Fold this protein.
Amino acid sequence: MSEKSALMGTGGSGKVVSVEGSAAEYQVCCFKAPCLSKVPVIRSAFRVKTEEEKGTFSSSIAVLLSMLGSVVGTGNIWRFPRIVANHSSGGGALVFLIVWFCFLWLWSMPIILIEYGIGRFTKKSTVESFNKLLGPSYRFLGAFQGFVGFCLGSYYSVLVGWCAYYLLMSVIQELPETKADSDIVWNYMQDSSWPILCHFLAIFASALSVSRGVSTIEPVNKVIVPVLLLIVVICFYWAIFLDHADKGIVHMFSPEWNSISDPQLWLDAISQNAWDTGAGLGTFLTYATFMRREQGAVKLGSMTPFLNNIVSLMCGILIFSTVFAVQTAEGFSKDAIVDTLRFTGGEGNTGLTFIWMPLLFNKFDGAGRFMAIMFFLCLTFAGLSSLISLMEMPIHILTDFGIRRIPATVLVGVAMFSLGVVSAVDTKVLVNQDSVWAYAMILSGVFLLFLVMRYGPLKFRRNLYNNYGIGDWPLPIIWVIIVVLIAPIEGVGLIIWWIVETIVNNPGDWWQVTDTSLLVTLAEWTFLLLVAIGLNWWIKPLVIHPPDNPITRKILGFFFKLTSMPKLDFDDSSVPTDYTPPASPPVVYGTLAKNSKPVKHDAGSFQLHGEDNEKDRLVKDSFVISDVEL
């Protein structure tokens, strides 16, 4: 008897109404099963795991703080001010800020809503989400997302290591009093082995957190994120009231309208907004797999990027105010101060925040050192929470393919450390990685837009949101218009514009092998796409159907305990097309385990696998057998 016929009853089909299990057998009660009312499915030791045991966020606040923790960090305090500074020459940076803010509504927020909906609905990683919604031929698009997140995490951990280094220096040394003193601290770090050591510690700490499960993220973020936001608000308030700080704010919000025709400004604006919010990266999709139906994806998906961009704007004002206040008092001209903003800290002005924040804290009188310690402590932990989400994404992909969490964590951790060492040694490589993978997030966002259009935008809106969420805002029709008409033109058009303008304006440079050249960027994208396409054709999720022979079961059981966590798949060919799921039945997970106690749990319809149509869109209100461990 096949698994499907064993489940549904010989020749029958129906809705699972209850589940019973013991150390002897696992049974399912079905209707429309003419031969059997209770059918033994698998003779083994099972236990039923509830959704909470499987791992979900405890509340909507926990989801919001965890999502903010995954994006609020070095992207706001380190990257945003330096990107704004790069576009602040001449009259100011207002044009960049306007374009950046528009992309929040026309790019980042719609993309993030796609991620929230997919993750909450499929409960799968990026690779298997594309498989579940579009079919196995499209797994490579999710794999590219995973690769981008992995590469970004490899150099991001170096930034987290810098934060940890400055935390240590704030504890053991006095704060610098002048920019020359601050430059000495920065240059010493770059010329020493500290970046490699701190990079390793960041990877190690994140790997420990992920290896214990994502449930550790919630309590950590409930403490870290509010404290970090409080310190940012205090620093912001202090900075804007410094003498001459108003000059920095005026410059930041002054327009240089000629820059609006610069494609690099538009590309930096959209990539920075994506980098800021995590749009298109896949971390929201991964975290959303731990959301429940009643945790509103529209509400949270709208609030998260908006709050994150408010934090970025505050950090930009904070840095501009500090630099102008300090250097105006030292007699520098406006042009000299702008050059300081644009070129401080080596390649890509990577050291801007780390050089100027200690100088700001030195202005805090007696509380400055304490504030510096608290700031870099919270920035370190905020960076770690973001790094955890970046590490969880490839680990989630590997566990979907049958690899156990601990081996997957070790594999991802070692690979991330190895790739990131080059960025820790040479900031030119870090600038290259930051440029390549920030722009690649736009391409990842385009892939998510393709998924929605291939699946059907109205169908996506109906099945994954409006007919699925409980107590959530409805996903407005304007989202469909943006996803179908506006966002694809933004993503594809900007990439093409950037390529054409770069070739036309730099005919002798774009093909050179440099850290930010067009050739290097396209080469790295192409390489990862080819790898993803190659993997698409020969790697499939590990599907195990336990054999009847007890000796074979024991041998396989020992093997999979050591290496993997296989799962059972069933198709949906016998599911009635007119079935309507109950309003909010519980989700039940069945996992093989020794000496499990007898259990009984009500459930909704059986979890379906197969072609994408109305009858198999019964996820989350379904009975699920997954993560089966022999």
Remarks:
- Residues 1-54, 541-545, 562-630 have pLDDT under 50 and may be disordered.
- Residues 203 and 413 are 6 Å apart (CA to CA).
- The longest helix spans residues 139-172.
- The longest strand covers residues 16-21.
